[in-house]
Amino acid sequence: SSLLLKKKKKKKKKKKKFQNIRTHCFFSHLIQCVFFQILVLFRNPKDMLVSYYHFMNKNPFFSDFMAGEVAWGSYFDHALTWEKRLDDPNVMMVTYEELKQNLSEDVKKISAFFNLPLTDEQVSNIAGGSTFNTMLENSWQFCKQMDELFQAKLAGTNLGARLKYDLYCQ
User: Fold this and answer.
1) Catalytic residue status for 54
2) In this structure, are strands 91-95 and 36-42 parallel, antiparallel, or unpaired?
């Protein structure tokens, strides 16, 4: 999913305010504006699939997901549109896998990207409230079909490397 933050026009004697929009849109579906800064959060497709599967109350959808016939379209086509924006200075790409490694440091990087200074206590509170303890991990780690699709679509891309698929899913 991606999160957009836009600065509102500054009024006299008031702090800057931010608006945010959470979306699962492809980059090409967003309004292009130089005033937007974009935080893009990607999750390993196997972890995302398991999470969505449980979220949907175990409704049968695996074949629809693999065919890209879910509400937001193909995960892989979506990922490849954002892959093209990795070097855009107004786009910060973060993966769940990176957040798992050092959540506090990534909270600091995200706040710096948006020029929102945080105290160490605020960073600690945000990181503490954003742990992955409730996530189901590796439930689908042996799914050959997902491995093949990942290899065909994202292996060899910068985003594919950052998702650390080989480390977390094989």
Assistant:
1) no
2) parallel
